[in-house]
Amino acid sequence: MMQLNSGNYNKRVQILKFDADARDSSGFPLPEDQRFxxxxxxxxxxxxxxxxxxxxxxxxxxxxxxxxxxxxxxFTKQINxxxxxxxxxxxxxxxxxxxxxxxxxxxxxxARERV
Length: 115
Prior knowledge:
It contains 1 helix and 6 strands, in the order ββαββββ. The protein is mainly beta and 115 residues long. A 6-stranded antiparallel barrel has the order 1-2-3-6-5-4. A hairpin with a 2-residue loop joins strand 4 and strand 5. The longest helix has 9 residues. It starts with 10 loop residues before the first strand and ends with a strand.
C-alpha cells in the first residue's frame, strides 16, 4: 500500500471554475479571462519540467509546463480541463488530468502557465 508523505504537499493551489455570469461592480460583464472564480483550494506537490524533460517538452511547444499532484477526493475528482489553477499570482491552464496508477490516491494535473 502506497503511503502519502503529507510534507510533499506544501503548496496551496486555488482551483478556479469559469463563471459565465461574472460582472464588475457596475454590473457589466467581466472580460472572459477574468471570469474564473475560486471553486476550491487544495494542497499540492508542484513540480516544474526540468532537464531533459524540458527540452522534450519545448520541442512540442509545451513550455512553462507544471505538474500539480493533489490527493484524490470527492472534489479533486471533479476537476476538468475547463478549470484553471492559480498558484501565488500565476494562472495555469489545465492540459491533462492523470489518475496516478488508477489507485484513487492522487491525481496529477498537467498545466501550462498563462503568460
